[in-house]
Automatic annotation (TrEMBL):
This is LysM domain-containing protein. Residues 98-123 are annotated as: Disordered. InterPro entries: Cell_wall_metabolism_enzyme, Dup_hybrid_motif, LysM, LysM_dom_sf, M23ase_b-sheet_dom. GO terms for molecular function: metalloendopeptidase activity.
Amino acid sequence: VDVEYIFWNNPEVRDDPDLLLVGEQLLIPSVNGIIYHVKLGDTLSDIASFYQIDVQSILAFVSNDIASPDTVIEGMVLVLPGGVPPPPPIPAAVAAVEATNPEPEPPPEPAPEPAPEPPPPASTGYIWPFSGSISSHFGEYRGGNSYHMGLDIDAFGRYGAPVVAAASGTVVLVASTDWGLGTYIAIRHPDGSETVYAHLSAVYVGQGQSVGQGEQIGAIGCTGYCTGPHLHFELWIGGSPVNPLAYLP
């Protein structure tokens, strides 16, 4: 089961993934999906639409034991294979910018560019962790109906280029997998927000370490599910992913 589904089914874990308690129980579906408790007035069609899947996939999942869409009642626990939570609302500032200035598509073959100095801090307190063109925006859907929870910043082949902390804070997680985010770092900042830096080729910090804004924490790579060197960058505020463009300079 992908780690994103563990976070979605246990949102409290996202806040402190390194502070799991002995005996703490987690909701972990048997497949990538959402565990849903049916409420009064729910219909299978409404549930499927809300979690962006079709009704048939819920009916076909054997453990749900649903004879027909009309037999769903309050209190039932269903597994929604492939379901994803609805995206968080786009901040008003971003909605206004996107409405008046739609993002142009990136050029098909951008010319390589030298790695610039880290930009100065923005008024929101975050800086760009890496400078490059955005190859995939927040909220875009991928294969399998997967919701994109961050920005992909193209490295233009600059494998090993420096990645810096977007704001000062404490490293709360350093992990590596053969899928998904690959090798990644999570940093918690003084205001409680968190940033995630993924697909790294190298990590230069350890869990529990304090880092300053602009300090190099890793290097561009292509680990995990990746089609070319780039940085996947996430910003979490209040336990939910938000569009980093609303908070970057």
